[in-house]
Amino acid sequence: MDRQEIIAKLKDIMVFAMPDSADAINTCTESSDLRTDLGLNSVGLLYIVIAIEESFGVDLSDADFSDFNTVKDVVDYIKENL
After folding, report:
1. CA distance to 19, 30, 32, 52, per residue, from 27 (Å)
2. pTM of the model
3. What is the pLDDT averaged over residues 71-81?
4. For residues 68 and 74, is the Cβ–Cβ distance under 8 A?
């Protein structure tokens, strides 16, 4: 799976978790900040972590998701753990 496929799938997950932020999510780039630019809150974060684990088959239990600041951080982690 390449970066663009990961980003597309990640955007789908985030839009489902945070439909009010759909416009920002659909136009986000890898440098977009998860909290500031995309409006990610703690509830959205929890859903996204679970959905990433299920959708990508990666385990985020060892990751400190609070260290992920940008979309790039999440994509890099997924890519490294596929």
Report:
1. 14, 10, 9, 20
2. 0.89
3. 94
4. yes
